[in-house]
Amino acid sequence: xxxxxxxxxxxxxxxxxxxxxxxxxxxxxxxxxxxxxxxxxxxxxxxxxxxxxxxxxxxxxxxxxxxxxxxxxxxxxxxxxxxxxxxxxxxxxxxxxxxxxxxxxxxxxxxxxxxxxxxxxxxxxxxxxxxxxxxxxxxxxxxxxxxxxxxxxxxxxxxxxxxxxxxxxxxxxxxxxxxxxxxxxxxxxxxxxxxxxxxxxxxxxxxxxxxxx
Length: 213
Ligand SMILES: Nc1nc2c(ncn2[C@@H]2O[C@H](COP(=O)(O)OP(=O)(O)OP(=O)(O)O)[C@@H](O)[C@H]2O)c(=O)[nH]1
Ligand SMILES: [Zn+2]
What we know:
With 213 residues, this protein is α+β, with helices and mostly antiparallel strands. The protein is built from 7 helices and 9 strands; from the N terminus they run ββααββββαβαβαβαα.
């Protein structure tokens, strides 16, 4: 299991209530926006467009800023709580919107993710499942790696009994161009722990996510 390269900035001590609180951010190289802007102007020229024309004058800057935004994931606090009640059934966030950029064509792919875990000693603030997804989605990606990174990261940091991630997405590189398979959706999944080992848990997970068994 490869644990992605994410910086844990601060390991805050548990609060009185026992909530764990860890500041999470991905290491970023500061983008060279001026260089990106020049490159987009070159791209426009390469296609016979004049980047100095009034209607295109702001475009290189806008494109540079758009990619800077799409490739930077916001930091967040990973809040966990003790699993005092010993809850041991699946916790599943279904239909989380996901947007990312295909590393082959720099075109978006988007769809939904279903992320679930079987709690161990701690449970997670629910919104954090979507935040972990965003941590890895705002990057140049292939869907398989994105799916795996989210599952690996949760398994490593939350230490649950099991983790499952399903992503179902449409890739614009496959629908707008090339094969033009409009509406085709790619489904990927990654499982760890008892969701991988135990046929019953696995079946329940895929039944709830509407996927394969
Ligand atoms: N496995 C995987 N492939 C992807 C993903 N996103 C895009 N691709 C594929 O990456 C491949 C790149 O193939 P190439 O043959 O080098 O590129 P291409 O000539 O533009 O390919 P076509 O899309 O078939 O026209 C394409 O088959 C894409 O569909 C992804 O998330 N996972
Ligand atoms: Zn692509």
